[in-house]
Amino acid sequence: MSAAQDRWMQRWLPQLRSAAQAGPVLELGCDRGGDTVWLLDQGFEVVATDIALDALRACASNAPRAQLLQHDLRTPLPFADERFGAAIASLCLHYFDWATTTRAVAELRRCLRPGGLLLCRVNSVRDVLHGSNAGEEIEPGLRRVHGTYSVDKRFFERGDLERLLPPAAWDWVSCEEHTIRRYDQPKVAWELVLRKP
User: Fold this and answer.
1) Dist CA 112 CA 52 (whole Å)
2) Where are the beta strands (DSSP E) in the chain?
3) pTM of the full predicted structure?
4) Beta-carbon neighbour count of residue 15 at 10 Å?
5) Any bridge partners for residue 118, and if so which?
6) How far apart are CA 77 and CA 102, in angstroms?
7) Which residue in 42, 50, 49, 5 sits closest to 20, CA to CA?
8) Helix (H, G, I), strand (E, B) or coil at 173
């Protein structure tokens, strides 16, 4: 299965439609636009970001109706407070140290409206085929793996997710581990759906 065929958001389409009625969907780490194309096909207006210019060029070719923006998740999001009804962060929030990761999530929350929906996927500690017990551990959960997208990768236990996205700040709709078949080898990731109160 390719990234373009990985329709992980399909089962959340009704909730996405409800959350995004009043504005665009924010997509972080759009890569070549697999999720972007799907969102556009469902009728959403999409603002998609990525740090890599080559990824953005490919996304522009695959999803020409999306608004694209180069952005480094280590810096604040260049959007007004509460601009978006929904945000997607698929496999892009697990490349940073803990302080940077918590700042990126706080920025996401800032940009969501009350009642806004966040659909997110991150590496699981059980993702052994993609580096969860490889390389040097830099800090708990963060490993130096010299991967395709980053030198470092973070791998999460459920407790880590509860610290990063505390129930006091988010309403948890769903949190499940899934095996993804979008790469050459199966990948184990957490899939989360959260709502900003």
Assistant:
1) 24
2) 25-28, 46-50, 67-70, 84-90, 112-123, 136-139, 142-144, 152-154, 171-180, 187-195
3) 0.93
4) 17
5) 87, 194
6) 13
7) 42
8) strand
- How big is the chain by its Cα radius of gyration, in Å? 16
Q: Which two tokens stand for residue 150?
A: 């980053």
Find all residues with CB under 8 Å of 93, minimum gap 6, and list them. Answer: 28, 29, 73, 101, 104, 105, 120, 122
Location of structure tokens 């499940």: 176
pLDDT (tens digit, 0 to 9) for every residue of the chain, 197 residues total?
445 567 899 999 999 999 998 779 999 999 999 999 999 999 999 999 999 999 999 999 999 999 999 999 999 999 999 999 999 999 999 999 999 999 999 999 999 999 999 999 999 999 998 888 888 899 999 999 876 667 899 999 999 999 999 999 999 999 999 998 877 889 999 999 999 99
Which domains does the chain carry? 3-122+156-195 (3.40.50.150)
Pairing of β 46-50 and β 67-70 = parallel
